[in-house]
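Q: What structure does this chain adopt?
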Amino acid sequence: MKKIEQCMEQILEKLTNKVDKFYLAGGTALSWFYFHHRESYDLDFFTKEFSQEEIRKVISYLKDVFNVEIELSKEVNKEDKVKVVIYNLTFDSGNSVKIDFVEDPCDLIKPPKKVDGIYILSKEDIYLRKILAVCGSRNEEDDSGRTLFRGGRQEAKDYYDLFCLSTIFSPISKFVSKFEKSTLAERMIIWHKSYNRTDMKMGLLEIISDKQIDAGIMIKHFDEQIAALVMLLADGDE
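A:
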């Protein structure tokens, strides 16, 4: 086990039963507790009850327990945006762990499950939030009246997570047609037309995994799934 993974485990151990208003989400939850498909060193804690006071309590506790400085890296606290606070916790070993606290704007599909004193988001809920992360979650219109989705994150690790969710858990076409069908499907179709294949290929080279990652297979899979999604939508309109 790498030193940074040990640091992350130490953080989670110290937070056992102390962050019950939060649930672990994102790539680390997906990799550590479900697929073990890639290395991930961020701790993403989502919550329906975003509270600066609660977050400060958690950070103060970690600072005291580990006797380290914790740096506030980023804060988003605007009414029209999802609230986010990001901290970097740097250990004496030099390893730095990024801890995100994120306001969760989505309804839960399934209740989070508690593992070793930490609530973990379900695969279904991680899936939905990954889709929104890459496609964007803010609806706008351009001058011609076309719908635009702002805020999408163009990172290869998110695309790889989506690929694994689609091939291991549930195909994108079936998942999207089952949950929030019309809007989510439109977002996926628009994303598929515009995502940068070259950037994805380059970004995949930076992912650490014991599995073989083939960009060509991923691109083909996304092509097939979006085509299947379009067909499902067409059948549903008849």
